[in-house]
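[Discussion] Sanity-checking designs against the backbone

I'm trying to build intuition for which residues belong where. Below is a structure token string of 259 positions. I'd appreciate it if someone posts a full sequence so I can compare it with mine line by line.
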């Protein structure tokens, strides 16, 4: 019996390995050996994710490996017990086989499968479609120029030099402005012929309400709604949407440019 055990088990293992090589799915992964962004080739797989299906497969085959190891005690015991012991062993192996078929049907054995389809429950933020336009609550497409920019409103006093020179900041606006300049805001260099500086803040679309609140706060310095646009990043292959708040050029911004 010992000779049978020493010959049968290695032969059975080789047969299983051969069957695995014949029927296993070949899923080559080019990303595993792809070079890093810095250009250095990886020595092994650089990914850190480990699917739980691998553990299910490992535990399942561990049970079958243990059964192979105990085939010799089973064969020996069948010499000394009646057919009752034989059928107990067969029922136990049948239960293991049913579990194996169940795991196979559930897809747990296909642990190398890459699920590239997005999950149904994953929330998706709505991003504005289209190219460079100002967000408005009504359709003002007739007020746009040929390049998509909004036409200057004739007669608006905010465009006059007198309005820009006499306009001043309230104490609360000064505190908010200093906080913005210490964070994500900036005051550009003079861009108009009469001088003055422009306040500019850019954020992602997730901060649209935040910029809209600032737009209302500095309503005396702006004439246009928030500017919405998008740009395509060639490195990541994704399109990013953002919104921009910018004021007209005012002399009262000059003293805060160095913050």
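Best answer:
Here's mine. Compare freely.
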């Amino acid at each position: 019996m010992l000779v049978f055990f020493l010959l049968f088990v290695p032969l059975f293992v080789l047969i299983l390995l051969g069957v695995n090589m014949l029927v296993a799915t070949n899923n080559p992964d080019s990303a595993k050996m792809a070079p890093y962004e810095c250009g250095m080739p990886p020595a092994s797989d650089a990914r850190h994710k480990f699917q739980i299906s691998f553990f299910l497969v490992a535990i399942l085959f561990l049970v079958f490996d243990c059964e192979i190891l105990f085939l010799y005690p089973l064969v020996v015991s069948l010499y000394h017990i009646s057919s009752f012991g034989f059928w107990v062993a067969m029922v136990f192996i049948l239960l293991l086989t049913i579990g194996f078929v169940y795991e196979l049907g559930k897809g747990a054995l296909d642990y190398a499968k890459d699920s590239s389809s997005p999950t149904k429950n994953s929330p998706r933020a709505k991003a504005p479609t289209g190219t460079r336009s100002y967000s408005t609550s009504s359709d003002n497409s007739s007020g746009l120029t040929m390049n998509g920019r909004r036409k200057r409103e004739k007669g608006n006093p905010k465009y006059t030099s007198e309005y820009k020179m006499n306009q001043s900041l309230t104490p609360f606006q000064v505190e908010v402005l200093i906080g913005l300049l210490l964070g994500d805001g900036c005051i550009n260099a003079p861009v108009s012929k009469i001088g003055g500086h422009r306040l500019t803040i850019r954020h992602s679309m997730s901060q649209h309400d935040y910029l809209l609140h600032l737009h209302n706060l500095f309503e005396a310095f702006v004439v246009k709604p928030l500017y919405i646009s998008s740009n395509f990043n060639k490195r990541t292959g994704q399109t990013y949407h953002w919104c921009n708040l910018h004021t007209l050029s005012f002399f009262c911004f000059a003293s805060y440019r160095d913050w």
